[in-house]
């Protein structure tokens, strides 16, 4: 039984695992997206999200806490600069794991992409387009026609125009009897006239 065993050890010692996750977190912050196995990505998500939350509060204390884990000055600058400004309004869930259909050739491990949510430009554009479409009022009936067709107060209403529904006089018509084709009916009418 595995009661209470929440940490995936990833087949590594604690020091090796922490170093690997620190390096992967630095790569994720610098490059905004990395390709790895699903197991490592899930472990990385639990590792990096608290660091991203700490970066929203730009104090000396939070910088020192994050630096003690990442140990990379360039990553720290990027995290507290561009990344923190982008994720400032997000209440959590800063990363996204997208599983890939292919597997790694050597050991058949499931591969995925882990990325920072606010840096995927194609999905952000699709989201803003969807929000703009949803913001427009949608009803089964059009409201704009009623407002445009309704006369203003104090205006006289003109009588409606009469529409003729009969066929134009120059259109040739043929009467088809039962069991008769159009060509036969046309030939009969031409013979009668």
Automatic annotation (TrEMBL):
Q: Tell me yes or no: is Protease among this UniProt entry's keywords.
A: no
Spell out the GO cellular component terms annotated for this protein, sorted alphabetically and separated by semicolons. ribosome
Q: Return the Basic and acidic residues bias intervals.
A: 179-193
For this UniProt record, the keywords arranged alphabetically read as follows: Ribonucleoprotein, Ribosomal protein
Question: Is Ribosomal protein set as a keyword in this record?
Answer: yes
Gene3D superfamilies referenced in this protein's UniProt entry, alphabetically: Ribosomal protein L17
Q: Where is this region: Disordered?
A: 129-193
Enumerate the InterPro entries for this protein.
Answer: Ribosomal_bL17, Ribosomal_bL17_CS, Ribosomal_bL17_sf
Q: Where are the transmembrane segments?
A: none
Composition bias, Low complexity:
129-139, 150-176
- PANTHER family documented for this protein: LARGE RIBOSOMAL SUBUNIT PROTEIN BL17M, RIBOSOMAL PROTEIN L17
User: Which family does the UniProt entry place this protein in?
Assistant: Belongs to the bacterial ribosomal protein bL17 family.
Subunit structure, interactors included: Part of the 50S ribosomal subunit. Contacts protein L32.
Q: Report the protein name in the record.
A: Large ribosomal subunit protein bL17
User: What organism is this sequence from?
Assistant: Hymenobacter glacieicola
Q: Per UniProt, what is the name of the gene that codes for the protein in this document? A: rplQ
């Amino acid at each position: 039984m595995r009661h209470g065993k929440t940490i995936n050890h990833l087949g590594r010692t604690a020091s090796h695992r922490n170093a690997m996750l620190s390096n992967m977190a630095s790569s994720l912050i610098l490059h905004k997206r990395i390709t790895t196995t699903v197991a490592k990505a899930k472990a990385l998500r639990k590792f990096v999200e608290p660091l991203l939350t700490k970066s929203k509060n730009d104090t000396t204390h939070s910088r020192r806490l994050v630096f003690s884990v990442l140990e990379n000055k360039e990553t720290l600058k990027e995290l507290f600069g561009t990344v923190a400004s982008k994720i400032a309004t997000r209440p959590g869930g800063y990363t996204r794991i997208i599983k890939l259909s292919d597997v790694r050739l050597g050991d058949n491990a499931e591969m995925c992409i882990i990325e920072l949510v606010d840096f995927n430009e194609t999905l952000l554009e699709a989201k803003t387009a969807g929000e703009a479409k949803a913001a427009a009022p949608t009803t089964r009936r059009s409201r704009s026609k009623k407002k445009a067709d309704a006369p203003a107060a104090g205006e006289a209403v003109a009588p409606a125009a009469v529409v003729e529904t009969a066929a134009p006089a120059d259109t040739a018509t043929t009467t088809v009897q039962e069991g008769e084709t159009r060509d036969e009916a046309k030939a009969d009418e031409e013979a009668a006239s």
